[in-house]
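FORM 12-B: Structure-to-Sequence Request
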């Protein structure tokens, strides 16, 4: 798999990932944040920042996906455009990096999160900790993911709330064979961010932490942004304010999603 940037930090940890302008600790705490990023918006950035602060993450890996198994219709724009926009979206944030771990496969087959996480886990030193960061909408579909019951034991889950999606009952999304404590073991606040910690267990009585960020009310949707762009909204409208400036400029320059209307 090609690595675009030669200035790699800790290659044994970030072999698939681009340069991070921040030292990696001996026991790195790394979160995988996968998704279409079609386009990457300020909601993605806010979720990653909250997780980074709440769980003292060294690195958040933004990984645009090549082909999502549960979205056979594919993404609205190419992987190359989504990768370029993701680089721009995170460029101002130390500790964020672009990952190519979920790049399109030569076979054009689907990218399965469990396989990606197993590769990332193998890259980390034994004292490192791998997390899997996702929004409540992705968590709601978790039971339908390939080998879903294995995922929390490869990478500890961090789930960020979204407006209109209740997370007070986690059992509805958990894969068969997994259960969680009825109440969080602790409710903590880090840098003003509420963090709830549960324990997940499987049929073999193995346990792993599960983290919830319940206080995030980020009402930004990539699909809504795409719809507004295709309708030709003015460059200073509310929807464009949901995008990092370099991303909105990239969309305009390349005519993506039918472009913004000229002002």
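FORM 12-B RESPONSE
SEQUENCE OUT:
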């Amino acid at each position: 798999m090609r690595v675009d940037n030669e200035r790699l930090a800790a290659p044994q940890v970030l072999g698939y990932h681009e340069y991070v302008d921040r030292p990696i600790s001996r026991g790195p705490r790394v979160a995988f944040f996968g998704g279409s990023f079609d386009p990457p918006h300020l909601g993605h950035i806010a979720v990653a920042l909250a997780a980074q602060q709440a769980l003292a993450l060294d690195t958040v890996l933004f990984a645009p996906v090549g082909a999502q198994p549960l979205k056979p219709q594919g993404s609205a724009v190419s992987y190359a455009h989504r990768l370029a926009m993701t680089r721009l979206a995170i460029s101002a944030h130390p500790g964020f990096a672009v990952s190519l771990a979920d790049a399109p496969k030569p076979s054009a087959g689907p990218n399965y999160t469990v396989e990606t996480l197993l590769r990332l886990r193998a890259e980390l030193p034994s004292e490192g900790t791998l997390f899997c960061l996702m929004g409540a909408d992705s968590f709601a579909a978790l039971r339908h993911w390939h080998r879903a019951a294995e995922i929390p034991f490869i990478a500890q889950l961090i789930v960020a709330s979204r407006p209109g999606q209740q997370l007070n009952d986690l059992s509805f999304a958990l894969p068969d064979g997994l259960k969680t404590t009825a109440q969080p073991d602790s409710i903590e606040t880090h840098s003003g961010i509420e963090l709830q910690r549960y324990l997940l267990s499987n049929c073999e009585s193995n346990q792993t932490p599960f983290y919830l960020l319940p206080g995030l009310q980020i009402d930004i949707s990539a699909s809504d942004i795409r719809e507004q762009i295709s309708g030709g909204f003015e460059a200073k409208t509310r929807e464009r304010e949901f995008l990092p400036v370099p991303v909105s400029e990239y969309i305009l320059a390349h005519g993506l999603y039918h472009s913004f209307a000229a002002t």
